[in-house]
Specification:
The complex is a heterodimer.
Chain A: H1 3-31, H2 37-54, H3 71-101, H4 110-138
Helix pairs in contact in A: 1-2, 1-4, 3-4
Chain B: E1 5-14, E2 17-27, E3 32-37, H1 43-50, E4 57-62, H2 69-72, E5 75-78, H3 91-101, H4 106-119, H5 135-147, E6 153-157, H6 165-176, E7 181-186, H7 189-195, E8 198-203, E9 206-212, H8 213-217, H9 220-225
Parallel strand pairs in B: 3-7, 3-8, 5-6, 6-7
Antiparallel strand pairs in B: 1-2, 1-4, 8-9
Classes of the chains: A mainly alpha, B alpha/beta.
Chain lengths: ~140, ~230
């Protein structure tokens, strides 16, 4: 395999993780709550990928077919599934609170409040995800 | 005069597990009703049903109408988790939002919001986001946001949770000075004794007793049955 092909393959594999990390960083920037989670995500991916490359291929022979079309999306969903469920719960709570605060859904302040409430959903979800991560770490289930 | 809140035969289940059954009570104008119950007795679920956020059986009437946009305009709500209600860049914006939405000029709305925040002991914290405040301060900001529209009915879900002694005292003074009808869901019996004129005791999703706050909240056997002591 030429170097160019190999580099493209690695880049394609890393793309979803990098896109996720960039999106996360942008959302954090909007919400004004910066954490190291985006950088940690990319660093963890890189570390795991290097480990996989360093280990003998036979060790992974029992894993599901990696070339199937659903492999990358399934893996991506697996990594972010907890974050997505938190995101859903937080979205419901914030949008209910917003609807109770506004007596005129299209009155002054409604447009700005929807932008801020959406941004706050991400901030709150990240805080909860961080708490979950910290709890897992304390129980020895992370890192 | 129309009752601010009328609940008839209300029932609600989470999946197949009944959470509330046969709930009947009325909150009359200016009346302060304490909804006492242990953890998991259905207090928060009842508040959510009253607001129309959960689909329940029976009937809920807010000012004679069904829960919805118009009726909710006269209702102030404080949720158990104050973070739910604070999402703007500063608590001043959060508290002023209902006024701005009703068409008040921004400057006037901010002036009133500052007064409301000062009344709950948050003078000087106006420009801070909710995330930068302690849980007790967030609770007080949520209370200020609920009171800003001078609602005719206040629904307070565990208002004293996370508050220190001084904040509880300030909250008591604040609520006692209001003319609004109130439904205060709490397991803080001392707070309810001081503030409520009537008490409804919930136990396992049913009303165990509804009557004057003094005798009801002084009945040890009842409180033991409800898991409150």
């Amino acid at each position: 395999m030429t170097k160019t092909i190999r580099f493209r393959r690695e880049a394609a594999m890393a793309a979803p993780v990098v896109v996720f990390a960039i999106a996360l960083a942008v959302m954090q920037r909007i919400a004004g709550a910066w954490t190291w989670l985006p950088a940690q995500t990319v660093a963890l991916y890189a570390a795991v990928r290097l480990l996989v490359l360093a280990l003998p291929r036979q060790w992974f022979s029992s894993l599901p077919e990696r070339r199937s079309r659903m492999w990358t999306p399934a893996l991506f969903f697996f990594f972010v599934r907890h974050f997505l469920s938190i995101l859903g719960q937080e979205a419901r709570r914030v949008l209910i609170a917003r609807s109770l605060a506004l007596t005129r859904p299209y009155g002054p302040g409604s447009c700005g409040s929807i932008l801020w409430s959406v941004a706050s959903i991400f901030r709150r979800s990240l805080t909860r995800a961080e708490r979950f991560y910290a709890a897992q770490w304390l129980r020895g289930l992370s890192e | 005069m129309t009752a601010p809140l009328e609940v008839k035969d209300l029932c609600f289940s989470y999946d197949s597990r009944p959470a509330l059954e046969g709930i009947n009570f009325t909150v009359r104008p200016g009346e302060r009703v304490g909804l006492a119950g242990a953890n998991g007795s259905g207090k928060s679920t009842l508040v959510w049903c009253i607001l129309g956020l959960l689909r329940c059986g029976g009937s809920v009437r807010l000012f004679g109408g069904r829960p919805g946009g118009g009726a909710l305009a006269s209702v102030g709500v404080v949720f158990q988790n104050p973070e739910d209600q604070l999402f703007l860049p500063s608590i001043l914006d959060d508290v002023a939002l209902p006024l701005i939405n009703r068409g008040q000029p921004r400057t006037a709305a901010h002036t009133r919001a500052r007064t409301a925040l000062a009344a709950v002991g948050l003078a000087g914290c106006e420009s801070r986001p909710a995330a930068a405040l302690s849980l007790g301060q967030r609770k007080r900001a949520a209370i200020a946001a609920a009171l800003i529209n001078a609602p005719a009915l206040l629904l307070l879900d565990e208002p004293t949770a996370e508050l220190d002694g001084r904040s509880v005292r300030q909250l008591k003074e604040l609520l006692l000075g209001l003319d609004a009808a109130m439904l205060i869901a709490s397991h803080d019996l001392s707070f309810l004794r001081d503030i409520a004129s009537r008490a409804v005791v919930l136990g396992e999703g049913r009303i165990l007793r509804d009557g004057p706050a003094g005798p009801v909240l002084g009945d040890s056997a009842l409180l033991l049955e409800a898991g409150l002591i």
